[in-house]
Automatic annotation (TrEMBL), chain A:
Residues annotated as transmembrane: 69-94, 101-118, 193-219, 226-245, 257-279, 300-324, 364-383, 395-419, 425-447, 482-503, 534-554
Subcellular location: Cell inner membrane; Cell membrane
Main localisation: membrane
Pfam families attached to this UniProt entry: BPD_transp_1
PROSITE patterns: ABC_TM1
Annotated PANTHER family: FE(3+)-TRANSPORT SYSTEM PERMEASE PROTEIN FBPB 2, INNER MEMBRANE ABC TRANSPORTER PERMEASE PROTEIN YDCV
Name of the molecule in the record: ABC transporter permease
Similarity remark: Belongs to the binding-protein-dependent transport system permease family.
Keyword Cell membrane in record: yes
UniProtKB/TrEMBL annotation, chain B:
SMART domains, alphabetized: AAA
The species this protein was found in: Kushneria pakistanensis
ABC transporter domain residues: 1-233
Keywords: ATP-binding, Nucleotide-binding, Transport
Protein name: ABC transporter ATP-binding protein
Molecular function GO labels: ATP binding
Pfam families, per the entry: ABC_tran (PF00005), TOBE_2 (PF08402)
InterPro entries reported in the protein's UniProt record: AAA+_ATPase, ABC_SmlMolc_Importer, ABC_transporter-like_ATP-bd, ABC_transporter-like_CS, P-loop_NTPase, Transp-assoc_OB_typ2
Domain of life: Bacteria
Amino acid sequence: MAATVMMRGLPRLGPALLFVPALLICLLPVGQLLIEALLATLAAPAEWRDSPLFEVLTSTTTWRATGHSLYTTALGTLISVVLGMLFAFALALTDLRGRRALVICFMLPMMIPPQVTALAWLQLFGPASTLLITLGIAPALGAPQPLYSAEGIALLLGIQHAPMVFLALRASLAELPAELVEAARLSGAAPRTVWRTVILPLCAPGLIAGTAIAAIAALGNFGIPAMLGIPVGYYTLPTLIYQQLAGFGTGVLDRVASLALLMTALVGVGIWLQHHLLARRDYRLGGQGARALTLATGHWRWPLTLMLWAILALILVAPLMALISTSLVPAFGMGLDWQHLSLAAYQEMFTRQAVTARAFTNSLWLAGSAAVVLVALTLPLAWQLARRRSRVLGVCAALFDVPFALPGVVLAIACIMVFSRPLPIIEYSLYGTLGIIFIAYLSRFLVVALKPLHSAFVQLDPGLEEAARLAGAGPMRRLWDILLPLVAPAAMAGGLLVFLSAVNELTVSALLWSAGNETLGVLIFNLDDGGDSVLASAVAVVTVAMVVALMGALELMARRLPKGVLPWQQ
Amino acid sequence: MTALAKHFGQHVALEGLSMTIEPGEFVALLGPSGCGKSTTLRLLAGFETPDHGEIYLGDQRLSSAQMQVPPEQRRMGMVFQSYALWPHLSVAGNVDYPLRVQKVASSERRRRVEAVLARVDMTAMAGRYPRELSGGQRQRVALARCLVSQPAVILLDEPLANLDRHLRASMEDYFRDFHRETGTTMVYVTHDQDEAMALADRVAVMQAGRLKQFATPETLYHQPVDVDVARFIGQGSIVHLTRAAAGEWLTGSEAQRLSDQGRARGFVRPQHVVTGVEGGLPAQVERCIFRGERHVLSLRLADGQSLTAYSAAAQPSGSRTGVAIERLWGLEAGEREVKGADARASAG
C-alpha cells in the first residue's frame, strides 16, 4: 500500500522545488546589492555623513549625470511616442497595403543592439562618413559630428525604443471593437469627435504602458550614451557607473553600488507612476470576439504608405547603408567606388585578429549555452506555473522579471558584488572569468525563455495532461511524452530569443568583461573607441545579419507558436 | 464515497456528499453549472483532493483527508469535455499510449488496440491525426482510449456538450448500447436533464454542492423530493397546499385543496390536470400554445396560483373553465423556500 500511495504534502511540493535555483539566480545578486548598500549606511548611523550613499548623493557629478539621464530619457521617450503612435495607428487601424512588411521593418531597430545602432548612425553623419563622401555631400573636415550631443543620444534612444510604444499601443487597438466606433457615429459623433471621445481614451492604457516601458529602457540604455556621449564627456547614469568602475576598479564598488541604487529608485518611480496612471483605466471588456476596427484610408492610402516607408528609409535603411559602406572601404574617411571596394575588414575579422575571433567564440558560446540552460530550466518552471494556481508561485513569477526590468548596469554591479569574493567552499572567484557573464545572462534572460513556454502551457488543454495521468503516466513521463512535443516550438522560440538577446548584449558584459573574455558587444564598442571604425562596422554588419537570420528563423516557425511569443507579431 | 467535502478558499464546492454506485451501473450527475458535479468527477479521478470524506473503489480506499491514490494508479478512465486527444499522436498512438505506459508487451498491445478500435468503429481511421477527425469520431477515439486499459470506472465529463444536436442524439444511443454491451460502471456528468434521464440507471441531482436526490429517472420524474428538484426536472406546476403532505401522493378531494396561504407545496404534472370539469376549481385560461399533438394551457386559479394542463382542443385565452387534479405529489420544502413568501411558482 505504502508504495502506491503518496503522502499528501510531497506531491504538492516536489516539482515546485525547482523554483529555488531559479529564484537564487534571479534574486541573489540584486538582493545582495540592495542589502549591502543599505547596510553600509545603516550599520554606522553615527557616521552617516561618511557613508558612500551620502557621498554619492551629495556629489555634483551624480546630479549632473542624473540630469543628463532624465533629459535624454524624456526627449527620447517623446520621439518614441510620436513614432510609435504614428505607426501603431497607421498599421493597426487602417487598410494600408504591405502592413506586415512595414511592421517587421519597424520592429528591427529594437532587435538591433544599441551599440550597432549608434555605430551605424555615426557612419551616417560627420565629415568622415563614407556614405556622405561617396554622395559628395560630406561636411568639411573638422566639422563637428552632430550626434555627439544630448539630442543625438535622445534621437537614437527614441528610434531604438519606438517599437515598444508601438507594440503596447497596437495591443490596445487590436481589442478595440468596430461596434464602439459605429455606435458613436450613430449617436451623432463626427469622425473627429469619435477620435477624441472614443478611440484615444480607449487606447490610453496601451499608450501609458508603452511610454513607461520605453522610458525605463531609455533610462537604462548603455550602448547609445556610451558611443555618443563618452567621446565628448557627456555622462548619463549608466555611463558614469561604467566610467568610474573602468577608471578606479572595484575599489569604488561602494560608490557605484550607491549609483546603481539611485537608478533602481528612478526605475521604481517610473513603475509606480505607470501603475498609478493605469489604476483606473482598465477598460478590458473581454470575450467579445467582435470585428476589429479598420478605417478606410481612401485616396490617402498611397501618400500615407509612402510616408511610412520614407520614415523607415531614414531611420533604418540609411544608417544601415552607411554602416555597410564604411565596412567596405580600405581606410576610414575614403569614399566608396567600385575600384576600391574592399573586403579586407571582413578578412581581418575572421582570420588575422585574434580578439575578433575570440569575441565571436565567446559570445556564441555564452549565448548558446545560456539559451540551452535556460530552456531546460524554465521548461518545468513554466509547467508548474501554468498548472498550479498558487499565490506563492505567482509572486515568484513576478520576481523573475526583476533582473530583466532593472537596467543592465545595476545587474552587472550586483553580480560583481556577489562574485568578486571567492565562492565559499570551492574557494574559486568567478570575477574576471566568462562564468560571471554567464550567470548574469542566466539571471537577466530567464524571463525571456520563460514567457513563451508559460503561454504555451497556459494555452494547452489541461485535459491532455490529465488524460495521460489516468493512462498511468508519472510526472516525468507526461512531461516527456505529452507536453514536450506540444510545447517544443515555444521552447525553441524561447531559446532563440535568449540567444538573440544574449549574443549582442553589451550593457552587462561592458562592466564584467576582462582581457580574453570580450563579447561581441564589447568588441564593437572597443574597436570604435580605438578609432577602428571600418573593422567595427564590419563586425556590426555581421551582427545585424545574424539578427536578421534569427528573426527569419523565428518567423518561419511563427505559425506553430502560441500567440504573443514573437515580439513583432500580433 | 462518504461525506465528501471540497472547499476552494471561502467557496464551498461540495458539502457532505455521500453516495454508493453499484458495479456496472450507469450514473448521471445532474445539476446546473457550478453545482459541484464536475468537482465530484475530478475527486473520483483524483485530480482534486477532498477536504473531508473518503472515496472507496470496492474495498480499496482511494481518497481520504490523509492519503491519496494518485490518478495514474486508480484504474479509472475519463472522457473529457474537450476529448483531450493528444494532437501529436495518431488515433492508434492515442489509444496505444496507456498500454505503452503500463509496459504491456507489444504484440498484446497491437491486439488490444485493434480490438478496441473495432469496438468503436474506428479501425479505418487508425493512422489519422485528431485534427483530421470530426467531433463524433474524436469522441469515439477518446472512449477507445479509456477503454483500452480496461478501467474499473469510466468517467464522462459532459461528453456531448461540444456536439451538434443531431450528433448528440446518435451518440446518446451509442453510449446506451455501449454500456449495455460492456457492463462497465459509468459516471456521467451533464447539465441536460433529458440526456441524464435518457441514459442513466440512476440520476444524482446536485445543487449548490449538495446531493438533492439520487434515484431512478422514473422516481425523479414522478416523485421529486423537494421544490428545487421539481423545478429543475420541470414539466409541471408547483402549488401551495392547505396541509403538509411531503413524500406522499394525494388523490381525490385531498388533491383539490390548493391555497396560496398554505405553506406546504405539491407538484402537479400537466397530464394529471383535467379541464372542463363541472364544479371543479375555477380557473381562467391565460395562454394556449399549440404543440402539435396537443395544446398546452397556462391556467390561473382564483387564488392567483398557476397550473399547466394539456388539452386536445384549443381554448381561447381569457375563457373560464373548471379544473380537477387527479393526483398530486407532496414536496418537502426546498432550502431556498424556507423563508416562505414568494408564491405562484411554476415550472415547465
